[in-house]
Amino acid sequence: MRSIWEGAISFGLINIPVRLYTASRERKLAFHYVHKGDFCPIKYLKICKTTGKEIPYEEIVRGFEYEKGNFVILEDKDFEKADVKKSHLIDVFQFVEEKEIDPIYLEKPYYLEPQNSARKAFVLLREALKKTKKVGIAKFVLRTREYLAMVRANDDFIILNQMRYADEIVNPKDLILPGVEMLQKRELEIAIKLIDQLSDKFVITNYHDTYTEALEKIIAAKVKGEVPKAHGTMPVPVTEMEDIIEKLKLSLKHAQKHKQLH
């Protein structure tokens, strides 16, 4: 693993030198755009809008348009100069109960690793988080912006979850949502039974991407020159006219049968 950031994590007056590592990876099939006629891969060029000429990578810089048509160039050191301390610090400024944080705010996870000189201080923070059952709220700068983060202990790890700010969440006020008065008591009772029947312990290793596996079979068939067959059927949406209770009862029966088989 290669670290993507080095600095320190602080709580109170204690600064713990750490490295930051990406804790997730995206598993997906790699698709490419190609020319339909001869399957030649499509190449995207960096073109100057003024001259129409291709610009080599080493001549491309980051600019901010402060007024129409006028740019100021920003180099990596300029981003650091904005706040030298913040550019090298994960500043834990508050501790809260994890249940207070709505998952809608959580984004990318990272692992923290202590540098050799700070192993004891790292363990101190980790064990204090465990004992108090709290998580830290922090701010840190990565590349060109400041992020909010949640810092939590998990076994021997300290995990930092990048978070969204409140103004990054779309207000759902425009959604048209029905009220509880539409429900019949019997419908709710059976729905609760169905949820109870389908309830189990969460074990993440029990789940995998079955759609990608099916797509790989489609690709394999086309490589052999075969015409792949469609799998599955279109879902039939429930409507207000249908007897929801009968659908719930049938679902409950299927869930009970599935549980008996497993």
Topology (elements, then pairings):
Elements: E1 5-11, E2 14-22, E3 62-67, E4 70-74, H1 76-81, E5 89-97, E6 106-114, H2 119-132, E7 134-142, E8 145-154, E9 157-163, H3 185-197, H4 210-223, H5 244-261
Parallel strand pairs: 1-5
Antiparallel strand pairs: 1-2, 2-6, 3-4, 5-7, 6-9, 7-8, 8-9
Outline:
The protein is of the alpha+beta class and about 260 residues long. It has helices spanning about 75-80, 120-130, 185-195, 210-225, 245-260, and strands spanning about 5-10, 15-20, 60-65, 70-75, 90-95, 105-115, 135-140, 145-155, 155-165.
Report what the structure shows.
The chain is α+β, with helices and mostly antiparallel strands and 262 residues long. The protein folds into two domains: 110 residues, Ku70, Chain: A, Domain 2 (Beta Barrel); 86 residues, no CATH class. It has five helices and nine strands; from the N terminus they run ββββαββαβββααα. The strands form two sheets. The chain has a seven-stranded mixed beta barrel. Strands 3-4 form a two-stranded antiparallel sheet. A hairpin with a 2-residue loop joins β3 and β4. α3 runs parallel beside α5. It is extended, with a radius of gyration of 26 Å. The two termini are 39 Å apart.
Give keywords.
two-stranded antiparallel sheet; Ku70, Chain: A, Domain 2; alpha+beta; 9 strands; 2 domains; 262 residues
